[in-house]
Amino acid sequence: MGKMVKWAPPFRGEDVEMPDYELIRLERDGAIGRIVLNSPEKRNPLGYKRLLEIAMAAKQFELEDEIKVIIIKGDGPSFCSGYDISPVEPAPNLPENGYINLKRDMLWESYNNEHLRVFYTLWDLQKPVIAQIQGYCLAGGSELAAFCDIRVVAEDAQIGWPVGRHWSPGNIQYMPWMVGMTKAKFYMLTNQPMDGTEAFRSGWASAVVPAEDLEAETEKIARTVSLTDTQLAMLTKRSLNRQHEIMGFRTGIANGTDLLALAELRSSLTGASYYSSESEDEFASRAARDGLKAALTWRDQQYDMEYRTSDRAREGRDDTADSEAEATAKS
For the residues of 248-302, what is the DSSP string, one character each? Predict the structure, then answer.
């Protein structure tokens, strides 16, 4: 990894070095600022560096008085396929040398706490944030969307937590807060995706529209939100967030992180690894031996899951010619 600029937002008028964004694109259109995930060939997966850039960009837009509302969207057919777990080193989903201390990172769950730091940046931001969701919105992508204030979803989008079949009980356990316990348990224990219509019916999505109308409708909603003075929008957002927090939202999310640490310990005790073809975890060993796309196809077939890594796989055709980079449909 080359030299990084880990930028913290300046206060008014401070002269600081600004970051060069590589994994997102910033757009400004009057009162609307857009953060665009720009790796469509990989279904816009999240990794350590991309998460940093999302947080930096959100804080940068917060400083720009002309920006009233922020849209987070993905280039190409999908919003975000989840965390990038491509079986390569250095792992794109982690700092190259760990977070704080390699012996303590898993116990402290530094991985999840770093994700929460980024997502709480959106939660606490003074300006409303809208997620524009098409195609896959899986695992970490669903967490990114959940911490936005409004979610506008295409009818045929796929929102899901496929990794619950083999790795995680839920990295950031937001679902009960959004859809209630009954739906949350069904979603997390079956690991089957919701389409946009079901996401709206269950309360996960703020609005659902035909895929061809997604961008226009998201822009329309953003324009409506931007009519409210930023000071009032800020207070409204905080007032609503505080209701969740008084009921224990942050404490509940923190407890979920502690349980994720136990799940990580379970993986280490059973020999699971992203990289080893000799791992006792079948998914991990297949990913290392045959490639991530092959492992994802095996997982879908093994667990009778409705996810597919590509149109070719969905149609039962040979998929070996497609780039493995396309297969980051979380996992």
Answer: THHHHHHHHHHHHHHHHHHHHHTT--SS-TT-SSHHHHHHHHH-HHHHHHHHHHH
